[in-house]
């Protein structure tokens, strides 16, 4: 049984002396055979640097990358049997679709034409492009081109596939339809994969586990469900899209408490004010409600926006800072309005502040 990928205390730096930047600051991560792990983090957090170090494209300043417990130090890129797929699939324009996919096949020149064609067809079926073999790549849509790139990178059956933002050049609708397809394809091919993205939805759709990266370090590695249910701390929660209430949210005389808003019971509220504890509001947990603004938690509307068919208000909530609330269709809100708020108690977590 293969042990898969094991990254131990990896450090990647660029430059030297005063110009030295540490892009990866000591990361340890394991990817089991057949597992898809997403590296999720904001731009510049070091995701690509880590991926490139695993590929062998970037040297490690410290730490190790191993496959099946064999250290890969000194093993060049082309001898790692890893596949790579980038944002721009970089198809060969002078080859047709089948020619591009066949390029990835091992020993392609020695393969009988029929066997080669059968394998190419199989790979095109896998990515949902049956019958596309003779198409010129210049006639493909962006999404089709990336699916061809995926088929090409799967052709040699790499023991690990490294994907660096493979969907980020595509529009949102395409990303949303291709992410589940990518997952199905990776699962069907039994591919072990490390998948770099800055898009939460994509990471949660594609991966078995998500590694949240920030400033060169991994903050939390967990299944999508566990990550959502229990972010490790307020930083991870904020990155996932929770509305984090600044410190002191429940302290007496230190701004409004959680209980004020009917969020949680009094015991929860007192904890929320303890040192080192923050409140995290799950998206959708805060709602604008009709009612007497003098009696309940209120917020001043700063902006109104539409997101996926729902109206949201960006609010300045006294003592809670900027928060986002869902606005029901029957309530009209405008910038400057003072609105009454209710919070779904099930959507509130108390988390340590890092
Ligand atoms: N070749 C390089 N030379 C110097 N600094 C670099 C180099 N490549 C990356 N960096 C720096 O290392 C840090 C991490 O970059 P990296 O590309 O790994 O982040 P990322 O999370 O993949 O970001 P993005 O999503 O924007 O690609 C950044 O501060 C970046 O400026």
UniProtKB/TrEMBL annotation:
Any single GO CC term annotated in Swiss-Prot or TrEMBL for this entry: membrane
Record keywords: ATP-binding, Cell membrane, Ion transport, Iron, Iron transport, Membrane, Nucleotide-binding, Transport
Superkingdom of this protein's organism: Bacteria
Annotated SUPFAM superfamilies: MOP-like, P-loop containing nucleoside triphosphate hydrolases
Keyword Nucleotide-binding applies: yes
InterPro entries recorded: AAA+_ATPase, ABC_SmlMolc_Importer, ABC_transporter-like_ATP-bd, ABC_transporter-like_CS, ABC_transpr_FbpC, Mo/tungstate-bd_C_term_dom, P-loop_NTPase
GO molecular function: ABC-type ferric iron transporter activity; ABC-type quaternary ammonium compound transporting activity; ATP binding; ATP hydrolysis activity
EC number: 7.6.2.9
Key word Transport present: yes
Enzyme class at the top of the EC tree: translocase
UniProt xrefs under Pfam families: ABC_tran
Domain ABC transporter: 5-240
Gene3D superfamilies referenced in this protein's UniProt entry, alphabetically: P-loop containing nucleotide triphosphate hydrolases
PANTHER family reported for this sequence: SPERMIDINE/PUTRESCINE IMPORT ATP-BINDING PROTEIN POTA, SPERMIDINE_PUTRESCINE IMPORT ATP-BINDING PROTEIN POTA
Protein name: ABC-type quaternary amine transporter
Organism: Beutenbergia cavernae (strain ATCC BAA-8 / DSM 12333 / CCUG 43141 / JCM 11478 / NBRC 16432 / NCIMB 13614 / HKI 0122)
């Amino acid at each position: 049984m293969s042990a898969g990928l094991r990254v131990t205390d990896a450090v990647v730096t660029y430059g030297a002396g005063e110009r030295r930047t540490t892009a990866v600051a000591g990361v340890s991560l394991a990817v089991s055979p057949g597992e898809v792990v997403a590296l999720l983090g904001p731009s510049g957090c070091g995701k690509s640097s880590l991926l490139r170090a695993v590929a062998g494209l970037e040297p490690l300043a410290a730490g190790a990358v191993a496959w099946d417990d064999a250290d890969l130090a000194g093993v060049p890129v082309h001898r790692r049997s890893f596949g790579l797929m980038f944002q721009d699939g970089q198809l060969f324009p002078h080859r047709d679709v089948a020619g591009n996919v066949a390029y990835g096949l091992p020993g392609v020149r020695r393969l009988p034409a029929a066997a080669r064609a059968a394998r190419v067809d199989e790979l095109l079926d896998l990515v949902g492009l049956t019958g596309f073999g003779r198409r010129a790549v210049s006639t493909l849509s962006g999404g089709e081109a990336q699916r061809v790139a995926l088929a090409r990178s799967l052709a040699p059956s790499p023991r690990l596939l490294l994907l660096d933002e493979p969907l980020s050049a595509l529009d949102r609708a395409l990303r949303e339809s291709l992410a589940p397809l990518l997952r199905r394809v990776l699962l069907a091919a039994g591919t072990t994969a490390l998948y770099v993205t800055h898009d939460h939805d994509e990471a949660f759709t594609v991966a078995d586990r998500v590694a949240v990266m920030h400033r060169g370090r991994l903050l939390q590695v967990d299944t999508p469900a566990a990550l959502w249910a229990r972010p490790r701390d307020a930083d991870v929660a904020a990155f996932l899209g929770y509305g984090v209430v600044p410190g002191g949210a429940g302290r007496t005389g230190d701004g409004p408490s959680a209980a004020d808003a009917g969020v949680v019971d009094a015991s929860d509220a007192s904890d929320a004010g303890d040192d080192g504890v923050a409140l995290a509001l799950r998206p959708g947990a805060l709602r604008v409600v009709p009612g007497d603004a003098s009696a309940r938690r209120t917020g001043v509307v700063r902006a109104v926006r539409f997101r996926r068919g729902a109206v949201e208000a960006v609010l300045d909530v006294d003592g809670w800072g900027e928060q986002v609330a869902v606005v029901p269709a029957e309530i009209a809100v405008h910038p400057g309005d003072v609105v009454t708020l209710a919070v779904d108690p099930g959507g509130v977590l108390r988390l340590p502040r890092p």
